[in-house]
Structure formats: C-alpha cells, structure tokens
Write a sequence for this structure.
C-alpha cells in the first residue's frame, strides 16, 4: 500500500529525513518510535503534504500513485489521514462546520454522492459514540479551550468520519490518561480492517498494549535504524534509546 | 489646501440648483470655502488622497439628476427573504411611488418640512464634506419614528446611483426617533453602471431618550466610485445606537462615523467589515465622544485586503472629564492576503476622565498557513479552506448583525467573494 524509498527531506536547508525506507501493506500496523527530534513528525508531515518541508530525494508510492506529486487535499481524498501531534486551534471554525465540507469533497473525489445534512448528522452520531465525544465540543471553535485528551479524541473522530486507507497517528497517546487512551485505541482498532493500514508514531510502549503493532521501527537522526516486532518496543521501554544511539553513532560514517 | 481649484468644482456644482434651503446652502458654501478640500498634509486625510482623486476622476462637476428606477430593479435589489419597509432613492432623491411604509414611521421630503434642523448634528463647520453636501443638496428625506414605537420590520434604504462621468450625488437624510422608539435601518447603495461618480452623503440621526437604533450600511458600488459618507448621531441617556459598516467595493471610500454619547447609560456600538480587492481604497474614520458618566462604546472592525487594496482605520475615542465610569473598547483586526495590500490602522485615544475602562488593540496578519494545511489535510481544497478561514475571521462581526435576512444576505456576498460556499 505504502512504499517509501530513500526519502530525504529538509527544512530551510537543514536535512531532517536522511534516507527513509518503509514498506506498509494493507492490514498492517507499524509503530514508529524514536527519541525526540529524530524526525517522526517530519515524516508524518511530509506524507501528509506539508509544503514547508522540501523533499530532496526519494519517492513515495501510495496505492501505486506518486504520493509526493499530490496536493495535501488530494492525498486526504486518496485516503491518507494524519492525526496531528499538536492539533491547532482555529477560531471561528468548528469541527462540524468544516467536516461536512471535507467529507463531501472526499466523497466527490471517490465518486460518491454528497451526504445531506440529515445523513451527515447520523453518521456523526455513530462516530461520536465510537470515540465518546460530545456534540457540543464539535460545534465549538476547533480545539479552542479543549483539553489535551479532547483534542486527540477529536482527531480520531475525524479519522472515523473520513474513513482513511492509511492512518498516521502522530503521538496521539501523549498526554492521555489511561481512560482516554483506552477510548482512543478502541476507536482506532474498530476502524482497522484488512484493507487499511495504520502507522502509529509514539514515544511510549504503553499505547502498543492497546494498538498492537506488526512491526516496530526506530527512527533516529532521520533514518530507520532498527526494525523488529512488538518485542522491540518492550526492549526500548526497558532500556531506553541510549544503546541504539550508541550503536548508530559509533558506526556512523556520515 | 489642495491643488484642486475650488472654484472650478464649486461653481459647476452650484449652477442651476433649485431654490430650496437658500440660507442653509449659503452657510454650507461659506463653510466649505473656509475649509477647502483636505490635502495629504491634513492629519485626518494623510493616507487618503481624496482631493487628488476627485481632481483626476471627476470631469463633470455638476449635480446628478435622478434617473428612472423600475419596480423590477427594486425587486432585484432587495435581499432574498427580506421582509420590511423599502425606501427607494435615485441619486439621493426619494421615490415615494416605489417605497412602502409601516405604522409609526413617517417620511417626508426635507423640502416639505424646512424646519427640520438639518446641520444641527452634522455640523458644516467641522467637516468640509458635510459643508459641501450642505452647500449642494437640493432635497433629502426626513424619517421619523414615533415616540414609544418599536418598529420590528427593518427599514431598507435602497440607494440607486447612476451619474454621467464625474457627476456629484449629494444624498441628505435626517432620522429622528422619539423617546423609547426602536428601529433598524439598512442603507444599501448600488451602482447602476460602471461609470465614476462622487457620492457625498450625510446622514444625521437624532434619537430621544431610551431609544434603540441600528444603522447598517452596505457599500457595494462600482470600482470607479468615490464616496464620502458622514453618519453623525446624538445618543441620549439610556439609549443604544449600533452602526454596522460593510464595504465590499469602490474606488475610494471614506466613512466618517461620529457617535456623540450625550447621556448616562448610553451605548454606542461600531462594527465594520471591509473586504477589499483590486485597487479599492477604504478609509474608516470613527469618532466616539463620551460626554456623560456611565456610558459605553464598543468597536470592532475587521479587514480582509487582497491585491493592491488599501485600508485605513482610525478610531478616535474621546472621553471628557465629566465622563467618569466610561467603558470604551476598540478592536481592529486585519488580514493581508497580498504583499501589495496595505493597511494603516491607528487608535486615537484622548481621555480626560480618570475613572474609565478603556481598551484598544489592532492586529495585522496573514492567513494562518498552519490552519490552512490542517483543513487541506482533511480533504478540503485550498480555495475553500481559505474561504472558511476568512469567513471565520469576519464571522465575529457578522454575528453582531441581528437581522437574520440581512446577516444571510451579507454572509452570502462575503462567501461568494471569498470563493467558498458551505
Ligand atoms: N518547522 C521547523 N523548522 C525548523 N526545524 C524543524 C521544524 N520542524 C522540525 N524541525 C527540526 O527537525 C527535527 C525533527 O523534528 P520532528 O520531526 O518534530 O521530531 P520528532 O517528531 O521525532 O520529535 C528536530 O531537530 C526539529 O528541531
Ligand atoms: Mg513529533
């Protein structure tokens, strides 16, 4: 489904991603871990189409299409969804307010009829229940005065509404208490299918008890320096990242 | 004093006028002569080269006669879903046969009622354009709201303008509301063609005590039009007055808004949106004068400027020594969508009382790129996403418009302009 080959990206001339290779197949869950500043969010942003990042080398195929050629909106319509690490506030724009436009543009792209207000509302009700989010929250200005947990739940709610093929969750677990973590993971798990894939970016192994990964990758200094199964996450939890850093830094030639 | 030769302009304008209001017009003329057109050296006009603009754009310095307006044109201009009173005007002249009325509302040509104290609120000696209007107008409309009458239907003043190149239109309106009266006006000006002309309008509003008056003004004239609008109102005790100024087009538009708070518990609200593109230049000068204790003023103007448009905002808050316990708030926020757009914004506070609450702020920014990306990442195309964000920005002012049909009408116009419907 997703094939990243030798991806290099920089911001304002500083290289951040320095040769990422990753294959994700339908039905799989991949976890990407790694110390702060290693480039996890950059990778997520590049996949979603953020223009500040300049891709200097490499290619990304998504369901056979050159992902990097597409506008951010077309990537979303193709089925890429990014749950932001730091969802921004948008005064005056509520979730309900923009999501119907978003959903209908996505549907139009996929050749589906637009949803009228009634159908949209009933779909919303269904998905709201999934992440246990209140309708009042959805009619308020996006993320304005939301708690950390509310922001993250809102991201997963949007994901549920848009039914993506590939979901990238960027530290959706940070700042969540155990209840919220359970709700969010539960939502993500219910949305998984054999036709979709998930990339979970996380700092903590804790999330992976709930969203169980098929593969775990460690990103460090803009490269995937280690890959394994879910046991790798447990090992990282126990030993931290220093041993990996040492391994990489001692063999580094560049 | 400007380079514009006053005599050319003025003599052309004063020729062949009917013999109404001779002494008032004479006084207007004298006051205009004393002041002349403001130049860029004039502090009040330093960003708005009105004299130069008049000189280069106007080629025919004479008063425009009314043109014939059809009932169909009226129907087309009235906002969909609008239920209310329509007062139609052609080049400033009231058209009774195309207008409607309601109980409690009386309208009269100013010429039929020469005792109307025009000029007592909008004073010719303080403003050359008010003076020029007073020297030039030949008739106007006196609108009265009966004491204790709450008129729930909005009153739409449809101002049709069409003038041969370079002509001058001088609308003059006097509104008076008896004690405890309530009314809401919409002043909507429309160009019937694309030719340049100069509208120099004066609206005076005299409210009794405990009145609640709202005056919306929607400016959507062609992009060659030069306008100077004076709205001056006396607000008595326990009264509320709200002005909502929406400007969507024009060549050069100058709005002079003056609120005189003349009693305790008086509230003056000044709201505005300017949504500019091309080379449109819009200058909003507002002036609120707190003279009594325990009065309040609220001001919020928002601007969105694209292309090479230019905005000027100058908000004067004057709190006299007697006006203790004044609350005065002012905000002006702007989004510049192009590197060539310019905004000059300035609060101007003069506070002589010591026990007042006064706040003001102005911001100039660009569209939030992060917010734009967020919406795109949800599948919304860039134009629509931009429209959503800009509409949200303007929304804070739109929300203040209580009349639903008007709010919808303006919202639709703004959404169309922002390239987005949702
Ligand atoms: N907008 C930006 N401008 C400058 N540097 C940035 C920007 N975004 C990220 N970086 C830098 O790129 C590196 C990787 O950041 P990021 O992808 O956020 O890491 P992670 O998500 O793994 O913590 C960091 O050194 C960070 O400082
Ligand atoms: Mg990150």
């Amino acid at each position: 489904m997703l094939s990243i080959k030798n991806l290099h990206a920089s911001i304002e001339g500083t290289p951040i991603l320095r040769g990422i290779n990753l294959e994700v197949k339908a039905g799989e869950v991949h976890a990407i871990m790694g110390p702060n500043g290693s480039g996890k969010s950059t990778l997520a942003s590049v996949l979603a189409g953020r223009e500040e990042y300049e891709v200097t080398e490499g290619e990304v195929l998504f369901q056979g299409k050159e992902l990097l050629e597409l506008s951010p909106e077309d990537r979303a319509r193709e089925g890429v969804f990014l749950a932001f690490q730091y969802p921004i506030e948008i005064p005056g724009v509520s979730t309900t307010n923009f999501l119907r436009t978003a959903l209908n543009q996505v549907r139009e792209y996929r050749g589906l009829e637009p949803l009228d207000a009634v159908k949209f509302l009933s779909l919303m009700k269904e998905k709201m229940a999934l992440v246990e989010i209140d309708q009042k929250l959805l009619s308020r200005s996006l993320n304005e005065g939301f708690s950390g947990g509310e922001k993250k739940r809102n991201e997963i709610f949007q994901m549920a509404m848009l039914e993506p093929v590939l979901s990238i969750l960027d530290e959706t677990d940070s700042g969540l208490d155990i209840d919220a973590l359970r709700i969010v993971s539960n939502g993500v798990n219910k949305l998984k299918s054999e036709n979709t894939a998930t990339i979970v970016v996380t700092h903590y192994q804790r999330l992976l008890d709930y969203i169980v990964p098929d593969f775990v990758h460690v990103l460090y200094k803009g490269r995937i320096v280690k890959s394994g199964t879910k046991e790798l996450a447990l090992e990282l939890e126990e030993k931290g990242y220093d041993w990996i850093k040492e391994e990489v830094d001692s063999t580094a030639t560049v | 004093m400007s380079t514009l030769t006053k005599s050319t302009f003025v003599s052309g304008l004063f020729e062949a006028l009917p013999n109404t209001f001779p002494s008032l017009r004479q006084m207007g003329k004298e006051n205009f002569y004393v002041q002349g057109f403001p130049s860029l050296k004039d502090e009040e006009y330093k960003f708005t080269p009105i004299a130069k603009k008049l000189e280069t754009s106007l080629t025919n310095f004479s008063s425009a006669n009314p043109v014939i307006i059809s009932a169909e044109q009226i129907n087309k201009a009235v906002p969909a879903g609008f239920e209310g009173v329509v007062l139609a005007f052609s080049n400033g002249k009231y058209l009774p046969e195309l207008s409607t009325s309601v109980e409690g509302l009386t309208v009269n040509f100013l010429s039929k009622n020469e005792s109307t104290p025009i000029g007592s609120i909008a004073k010719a000696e303080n403003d050359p354009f008010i003076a020029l209007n007073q020297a030039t107008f030949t008739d106007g409309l006196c609108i009265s709201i009966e004491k204790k009458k709450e008129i729930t239907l909005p009153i739409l003043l449809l101002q049709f303008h069409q003038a041969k190149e370079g002509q001058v239109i001088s609308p003059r309106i006097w509104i008076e509301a008896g004690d405890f009266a309530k009314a809401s006006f919409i002043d909507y000006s429309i160009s019937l063609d694309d030719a340049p002309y100069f509208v120099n309008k004066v609206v005076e509003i005299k409210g009794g005590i405990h009145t609640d008056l709202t005056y919306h003004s929607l400016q959507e004239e062609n992009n060659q039009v030069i306008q100077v609008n004076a709205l001056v109102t006396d607000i008595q005790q326990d009264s509320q007055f709200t002005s909502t100024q929406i400007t969507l087009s024009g060549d050069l538009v100058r709005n002079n808004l003056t609120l005189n708070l003349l009693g305790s518990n008086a509230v003056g609200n000044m709201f505005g949106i300017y949504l500019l593109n091309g080379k449109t230049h819009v200058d909003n000068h507002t002036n609120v004068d707190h003279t009594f204790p325990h009065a309040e003023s609220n001001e919020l103007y928002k601007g969105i400027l694209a292309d090479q448009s230019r905005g000027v905002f100058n908000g004067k808050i004057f709190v006299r020594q007697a006006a203790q316990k004044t609350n005065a708030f002012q905000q002006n926020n702007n989004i510049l969508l192009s590197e060539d757009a310019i905004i000059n914004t300035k609060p101007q506070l003069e506070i002589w009382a010591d026990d007042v609450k006064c706040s003001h702020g102005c911001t100039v920014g660009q569209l939030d790129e992060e917010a734009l990306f967020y919406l795109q990442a949800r599948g919304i195309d860039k134009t629509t996403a931009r429209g959503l964000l800009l509409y949200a920005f303007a929304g804070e002012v739109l929300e203040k418009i209580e009349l639903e049909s008007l709010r919808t009408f303006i919202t639709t116009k703004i959404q169309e302009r922002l390239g987005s419907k949702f």
Remarks:
- Chain A is about 40% helix and 30% strand.
